[in-house]
Amino acid sequence: MKETSGNKVRLDRVDLSLELEDKDKADREIEKLQERLYELQVRAFLARKSAIFVFEGWDAAGKGGAIKRLTARMDPRGYKVWPIGAPREHELAHHYLWRFATRAPEKGEIAVFDRSWYGRVLVERVEGFATKAEWSRAYEEINAFERAFTSDGVAVAKLWLHIDRKEQLERFKDREGNPIKRYKIGPDDWRNRKAWSKYATAVQDMFDRTHRPDAPWYAIPANDKRYARREVLRICAGTLERLLKGG
Question: Does this model's pTM top 0.90?
Answer without folding.
Answer: yes
